[in-house]
Structure of F-box/LRR-repeat protein 18 LRR domain-containing protein:
Amino acid sequence: MHFLSQPSFFEYCEHIEELHILGHPSCTKGMPKYFLQPQINKKENLQHLTVLSINDAIDPVARMFFFGTLLEVCKLPLRFKTILQPVSNLEKLQHKLHFVKCVQQVDDLENLDLSRASVEVPNPLFRLERATQLRFLSLADNNKLFSDSLRVIAECCPNMISINLNNCHNITTNGDESAVDVSGLQIMLLNLSKLQHINLAGIHFHELISGGSLCEMLSINSTWKSVAFSPCCLKYNKSNTDNETTISGKRLSSQCDNTNIFGKKRRIGIETQPVEVIPLKEATENGKSHPKLLIPSCSDVESFELIGADFRSGFNKYFGMHPKTFHYQACSSYRVRDEDIVCIGQWKNLKYLQLSGLHGILKGHCLINIAKGCVNLQKLYIAYLGLSGHCSYMSSLCAALPHFQKLLDFRLEQPHVKLDQTFFRALGSCQNLERLCILSKNGSFDTEGVTVFIENVKSLIVLQLFTGSTLNSSRALQKALSIKYKTSRPALFITIHPLFHNEMPQMSSNIPAKHLDDITILGSEVCRKPPGWQW
C-alpha cells in the first residue's frame, strides 16, 4: 500500500468506527517509510469514526501516519468518543482551523489522552468544561498543570473514572514552587465521586497538608481499583527546629540521592526537608500518612505502584522514555522501609504491583508478607530496592516467590544480582509464570539453573536476561535453548544479551512489540490507558 501514489485501505473499508495505530516501541523498527501521509479519496467512509488512537511509542513513521490521518478526518463533521495522544506540539496545530473545530466538539468525548504535551487547563482548544461525559483523562508529563487546573477538572468532569497525573510535579503549586497548594487535589478527590483509578507517581509531597496526608485524602474514596504515588507520600515532616532530625535528613539525602544509577552521581547543593520514618503501629495510632490508611476503605484495589519520584529504569534510555518534564529534587523522604509497606499484603484482590526506586527496602521482609497476602497477584515488577550495591533482599525474594502461585509476569531490575540455582529453583515454584524479564548490569546467571527453570515451567513463553555476562556466553545459551525448544515449544521467545552492549538497540528490535512494551520497558502502568482498553 503506497499511500503517496495508490489508494489506501481507507478506500475499501466502509463504515470505519475505530482506527488504532500501533507503532513499535523501538525507533529501529516500525512501519515502512512509505506509510507517511495517507491519501483518503472517499472521506465518506470515515464519517462514522469515533475512536482514533496511537500507542505510546517513539516510532516516528507511525506517528506521522497517525497525525496525517487525524488532520484529514478532522475535515469531516465528526464527534469523537476517544482520542488518544492527538497533540505533540499544540502551538503548531492551532492554526489548523478544521483541527481546532473538530477537537472542540467534546460533548460526547469519553476518553482523552494529552500526555507528553504541555497543555494548559483550562484551554481554549480542549474545552473540558463541556466534556461532561469524560471518563478517562491522561495529562501525564505536563509541566503546565497547576493546583487550579485540578479545580477545573473537578468542576467540569463529574463522570471521571480514571485520571493520569504522572510526573505533573506542579499540581501542588500555583506557579510558585515555594508555596505549596494542594487544595485543587483535595477538591478533585472530593468532587469526583466516581473516580476509581488515579496516578500521582513522580510527584513530591513534602509539606504537611492542612486537610491531612495524601493517604488520608485518598482513603475518602472507597472504590479505588488502581493507585500510584511516590514514596514521599508515606512520610511526614517534622518541625525545622528539630536539629537531630535535620542532621538525619541530610545524612539520608547524601546516601540516597543517586537515582541516576547509570550516570554520574548528582550533587545536592540544597538542604532537604527533615523527615522521620513512622513505625507501622505508630503510624496507625497517630493517623500519620501510611498506606495502611487505605486498606480498610479500599479493599478492592487491584493495581498499586510505589515508584521513587526520581526513578528511571536504566533500560529505558534506549527508547527515549525520559520525559522532558522530568523534575529532579533532592528527597530523603523516599526512604521507605519494610515496615512501611508490609500492609500491602492485606489487599487480597491485588493483581499488579510495582515497587521501584525504594532505597530503604534492605532485607525485603515485606515481600514475604505481600506474597502470603496477595494471593491473586499476577504481575510483579521490582526495580532498585535497597542500595545500588549488593542485593540484600534476595533471600527474602526467594522465600516469597513460592507463594505467588498465580503470578504471570515477573520483572526484576537490580544492578548486582546473582542469578544462581537457588533463585531459579524458587522462581520455578511459580508454575503459571508466562513472562520473565531480568536486568542486572553487573549480574550473572547460572546456565544450569536457567536450563532447569525453563524445563520445569512449561507455561513460560518469554525469557529475557540482560546481565553483565559476556556476549559469547549469552549467545551460546540463547542458541542452545532456542534449538532445544524450537519444535516442542514454538511460542517460547528467548532473549539473552549483555545489558550494555553496542548491539543492544538492534537486538531489541527483534523482540515482539507486545512483550517489549509490556515487560521490557519499565514505566508506570496505572491509568496509562482507559479502563478495559484492549489495544
In short: The CA atoms of residues 244 and 274 lie 9 Å apart. The chain has a mean pLDDT of 80.
